[in-house]
Design goal:
Elements lengths: L22 H10 L15 H4 L26 H11 L5 H19 L6 H8 L3 H7 L3 H22 L7 H13 L1 H4 L1 H13 L6 H25 L9 H21 L5 H16 L6
């Protein structure tokens, strides 16, 4: 029996008693001793690495820690963490990277205000180096202008996704106003980003110019819907669809500003007030 009490024989020279007898007996005994490089029956061969003592870290044990002895919070070996970091920094498409950076800017402005939206903070929030910002935007003003435009597009898509564009005009407008009234609760960051960039940053791509450019596209789409309502007899024919679109958007924006600063007001109740006032003024007398 070996040192472990099994049939594998002697585990090595260190655990075997030296053979006693003649030199010929010694040679015979030596031939029977297991070779370190061979596998003894009943024993699994150990690699050279397994024979080495366990790797010790900064605390003197085998835990996964940094050179300062601090525990790795994930419990993973450092090699695994390096692989994860490399995958996290994988190359994104230009559009995906712009979305990442613009979303980070919207998040900061919406949560902390415009003053907190520095290049360093945006890069940190996005998890990239600051120099990467200037690969996709000409300067900080350009980044802010694109972030505001991203917020415009996001809000319009949210409202449009929840309404039936083929519904009667009064139902369509009422549904759109009610959905818009919920934006301060669901998309407050986007609303505050637009407000702060447009109102406080004339230098950022021209805040007023940015607003006019984006609103002009909104006005055109809204005017087309209102004109359709006129053609179907659902809207007073004597009203200018473009001016009515501007009036409608102004009422919605005022509602959103008030709801954002007065969260105790019920948004749907306010939305119904706005819709009642608007529809009372634009619906033909025979349809009221």
């Amino acid at each position: 029996m070996g040192a472990r009490g099994d049939r594998g024989g002697v585990r090595g020279a260190a655990t075997a008693a030296p053979p006693v007898g003649t030199s010929r007996q010694c040679r015979r005994a030596a031939r029977r001793l297991p070779d370190r490089g061979r596998t003894v029956p009943g024993e699994r061969r150990r690699s050279a690495a397994a024979a080495l003592p366990p790797r010790m870290d900064a605390r003197g044990d085998g835990g996964h820690r940094g050179v300062d002895g601090a525990d790795d919070p994930s419990g993973r070996p450092r090699a695994d963490m390096t692989a994860l970091n490399q995958r996290a920094r994988q190359r994104l498409s230009a559009e995906a990277r712009r979305l990442q950076l613009e979303t980070a800017a919207i998040e900061i402005v919406g949560r902390q205000g415009l003053a907190a939206a520095t290049a360093d903070e945006i890069a940190r929030t996005a998890g990239v180096s600051k120099g990467l910002l200037w690969h996709y935007f000409t300067d900080f003003d350009d980044l802010m202008a694109h972030a505001a435009r991203r917020a415009f597009i996001s809000l319009e898509a949210v409202v449009a996704a929840d309404i039936d564009l083929d519904a009667d005009l009064d139902d369509l407008l009422r549904a759109a106003i009610r959905r818009a009234a919920q934006l301060p609760a669901t998309h407050g960051a986007e609303l505050r980003t637009i407000r702060q960039i447009v109102l406080n940053l004339g230098a950022f791509g021209g805040g007023a110019a940015l607003r006019d450019r984006e609103y002009s596209a909104w006005y055109a789409r809204q005017a087309a819907l209102l004109r359709r309502g006129q053609d179907q007899g659902q809207l007073r024919a004597d009203l200018d669809p473009r001016l009515l679109a501007v009036t409608y958007q102004g009422m919605v924006d005022s509602m959103l500003d008030y709801l954002d600063t007065n969260p105790d007001v019920d948004p749907l109740t306010y939305a119904d007030h706005v819709a009642d006032v608007l529809l009372a003024g634009i619906t033909p007398p025979g349809k009221r």
